Amino acid sequence: MLGIVSIMIGLAGGVISSLLFKWCRFLCHSAITETLLLLIVAMLCYFISESHEKSSIISLLTCGICMAHYTWYNLSPQGKTISSITISIFGSAAESFVFAYIGLCTFTYTRFEQGGEDAPQEEEKYPWSVSFIVIMCTIIIVGRTIAVWTAHGLVSLCAKNPDVTFKELLFVTYGGMIRGAIAFGLVLKIPDLPAGDVNHFKERGVVVTTTLACVIFTTVVFGSFMPIV
């Protein structure tokens, strides 16, 4: 239900923006206005989903896909150019910021030495488990491979002619093994409740550090060899 509602919110934002630019052509007189309205509608989907405790990331992604397929074609030529450049700039800046934040988090969760009676409380809150990291990375690789090839097999049964080559399928499988900042961001949303709370999740720390390690490992290892693939 969470995913369905989040998708519906994103679709609503995409459809509204598409109809808005289609029927209200006076909005297309300024490329700056067009770009601002695109950003406002997308962020409204994000905040509405977040305020209702739904997946704001799914809503924003759905809204963006809908805008790319429908709203973009209702913009003026200048609006298409300006909006594409503006969103690309924001996207590159956000990506750099997120990965810089992940790098800083690595030092944050490992800045205390193990053991000792005087060790701070954070050392106990964020333990590292090498075995758990290895298991999770293995699950990511195996699970992604099974998911992609199973989905491709099911689609092939319904398609007359294959539209995906073997090399393209390998690229999709390999690229999907890279876990990004979204996975780490979702893990951080697990409530950090005190130990006495009935909903306290005592293993939150090891889940956070394991996810962080998986993101760094898959990004560095698989991402480094992406040009070769």
What percent of the residues sit in helical stretches (DSSP H or I)? Answer: over 70%
- Domain module count: 2
Mean pLDDT: 84
Largest sheet: none
Shape: globular
Radius of gyration: 22 Å
Query: What does the oligomeric state look like here?
Result: single chain
Order of helices and strands: HHHHHHHHH
Helix tally equals: 9
How many β strands by DSSP? 0
Class from helix and strand fractions: mainly alpha
Beta-strand residue fraction: under 5%
How far the N terminus sits from the C terminus, by CA atoms, comes to: 37 Å
Uncertain parts: 112-123
Q: What would you note in describing this structure?
A:
With 229 residues, the chain is mainly alpha-helical. The protein has two domains: 2-108; 122-224, no CATH class. Helices cover 71% and strands 0% of the residues. Helix 2 (31-51) packs across helix 4. It starts with a helix and ends in a 5-residue tail after the last helix.
SSE layout and pairing:
Layout: H1 2-23, H2 31-51, H3 56-69, H4 77-108, H5 122-125, H6 130-158, H7 166-176, H8 181-188, H9 204-224
Helix pairs in contact: 1-2, 1-3, 2-3, 2-4, 4-9, 6-7, 6-9, 8-9
